[in-house]
């Protein structure tokens, strides 16, 4: 009988409900952990935003540096040095009686030499006057379709459309540059590797990794040591490779 009573006492003790205070403590602990996890999530989201901003800034800096290289290369090739225009001093002359009016001759449009035209277009792009720069490069191609800078002009027009967010026109311009270079229609095609890289980048932005990988393969195969190939390898991870 005593053993039976002892056994029943043990069973009732084991089955007794957990004290309410202990349950409250456990809930408080879980709520604290949830709060800490939420705070950590917020911190990680902020870190991610800062990282994205840094990447965007680095991309801008790289673009600016490449543009500086382009301008320096142009100056080295042409010997053109930017100078301030000479100051003119206005000298007053005695008033003269105007001669009889003569029929005006038609004005002849001033044609700039190709080095000056290209330099001015580059300067417009460097200060982000994108629409004016686009028009300047288009005029350059119109007047100098077979210049050593014509492929550069096509490339920068594509870049301008890319920066304006018009991916369709950017892609069309870069494809046109590739077609002209591959078809031997331009005398110089130093921007061809960069055109392949831009086509790869556009397709990465669209999530079309198969097409991006195709341009990557062409670029690596044809121009393995180019700067564009180096940048393409850096973007390889964006394609899940």
Please describe the structure with a list of short key phrases separated by commas or semicolons:
mainly alpha, Serine Threonine Protein Phosphatase 5, Tetratricopeptide repeat, 241 residues
Provide a brief overview of the structure.
The chain is an all-alpha fold.
Which helices and strands appear, and what pairs or packs with what?
Blueprint: H1 2-14, H2 20-78, H3 114-126, H4 130-143, H5 150-163, H6 167-182, H7 192-206, H8 209-222, H9 227-234
Strand content bin: under 5%
CATH topology of the domain at 112-169: Serine Threonine Protein Phosphatase 5, Tetratricopeptide repeat
Q: How many beta-strand segments? A: 0
Radius of gyration, whole Å: 34 Å
What general form does the structure show? elongated
Return the CATH class of the domain at 112-169: Mainly Alpha
Structural class: mainly alpha
Q: How does CATH name the architecture of the domain at 112-169? A: Alpha Horseshoe
Mean pLDDT over the residues: 78
CATH superfamily of the domain at 112-169: Tetratricopeptide repeat domain
Largest sheet: none
Order of helices and strands: HHHHHHHHH
N-to-C CA distance: 76 Å
